[in-house]
Amino acid sequence: MIVLLAACRAAAAAPDVMSExxxxxxxxxxxxxSRLSQxxxxxxxxxxxxxxxxxxxxxxxxxxxxxxxVPGMYVGYFKGDQPVVSYHGLSDAYAxxxxxxxxxxxxxxxxxxxxxxxxLPISVDDIERIEVVRGPDxxxxxxxxxxxxxxxxxxxxxxxxxxxxxxxxxxxxxxxxVLRHGGTFGDVAYSVGGGYRGDGGFPGLPDGQRAQxxxxxxxxxxxxxxxxxxxxxxxxxxxxxxxxxxxTNCADNQAAHSSFEQLRxxxxxxxxxxxxxxVFHDTYRNQESAFDAIxxxxxxxxxxxxxxxxxVRTERYDVExxxxxxxxxDVRWVWGANVRHEELYAPLFxxxxxxxxxxxxxxxxxxxxxxxxWLLVQGxxxxxxxxxxxxxxxxxxALNAHLTPSQTVRLSVSHSTRSPLxxxxxxxxxxxxxxxxxxxxxxxxxxxxETILSRELGYLYAPPGGSFSLDLKAFSDRVxxxxxxxxxxxxxxxxxxxxxxxxxxxxxxxxxxxxxLQASPWNGGRITLNAAYLHAAxxxxxxxxxxxxxxxxxxxxxxxxxxxSASVGFYQTARVxxxxxxxxxxxxxxxxxxxxxxxxxxxxxxxxSELAIRAQNVxxxxxxxxxxxxxxxxxxxxxxxxx
Length: 643
Prior knowledge:
By secondary structure, the protein is mainly beta. The protein is 7% helix and 59% strand.
């Protein structure tokens, strides 16, 4: 293979010897793929960067919606307050195979999986960029980094100067206000902010949300070689959508509280050598009550409604040590270890008043060797032990061949695992209706981890100047021992003698191609086009139809005279079957959506303000996840300012 790549390079390269700087070109530098700072052209797998300019042009005010700009990413809404984000399909409402990070801190929930997006104490304005590793990366981030990794990187305190504000509102119950201030005192840079956001959800459905949040950050340098970053934040939210697995329509009320504290210390040992320590702690509390809208008739003939209550508390402690080394001019190496302790109290879901706990211990390493000026060889592995699934190893290897300063070919193979969640293995959700108890979900235990073998061939064309790039990827994945729900006999159940539990089911084979094009073809214009064409094969039909045949997104933005700018976004997802945890799966028709945004910037560059109007879904209503979830046209206006 190396001989073949060398021949290709010889055919394509210019006669002059190319320096490393020429190879790197003007392409984005990322950290998420391997924990080593490297250009996208040298990442071990396909990586997408959503920068601030793209975020602003999209007009999206929801972080999950921003991920529509990633090739192959499905974004929908299980309920108006519960987004669904998945890469290459095969997802239910809890996105159990995706790893989500904010500034390197995992926000993946240890109870049911997924992310409580409503309770994130950040706004879109806090985001510097989003790095998305499009492929399994358990070798870098451990179990649950199964299909992809999303790392949301916020604006550093040292970059936040002055005061900024955002105020927006419009149809669908949307309302948002954000206020942030940053500055310095002595050698310490700080930023503090907060806000409110609310949305009415889908028309006619009880799935609205509102949240208030605060966050802050400190950056300082206690020594010439040392840097300390501190982050903290908290959220209070109220939601109408139900987490409780009651029947189809639930009159419901949720109140949640979350908070986190994070500290990261880095010490520069020498040129390229670095030692870092990260510690974080987070908590989440959710109280919920629901009245089941389809009551169970009682022995005395009465037919009352019954209230179901839930109280969930989670707490996580995480410590990670990492060292980056440059032992030789052509070799870089990163290694480290991580320990995590998680606690979960959820009587309704586990039928116990005890607090449950899980532990995770990991050791990881990744190295890269520039074997030739045009060839980068890299590989790594994560050894992980969990108190639920035992021990396992997730390796990855990759070759990045720079055929010319503008062209790179990437070959990579990785093997990753996803450990069962506590709920998947040990769930015991029993719903009580007067004289009757229905075992809604009862775990069967002894689950094996899911596994994925992923093979990827990538091509990146990024000529100097940064005005054009083309990123192509062909992949073949085999997912085995899939963990999913199944119905099985349960003695004493009044639900036809059956209940629901989790089991390791069949495998799924996925193949496909993806493309991402970014261009600035004329002054003030920018176009982003993403497309993915996917195919799945499995003995289980639901898994085949759960992978959309195609996912397409396009964003075109143009600066206009007089401080005006305009952008148009188009998003389309093929018909897909959404996997559901508590009931049968359901088909979602083809989704096609177009958003239009017009903005006017005024004031001097140091204190610029912007007035914007956004029309969402101008093509007309579409159905989202459920047939009852109808997203209609929406219009909103916003004003942002910096002073």
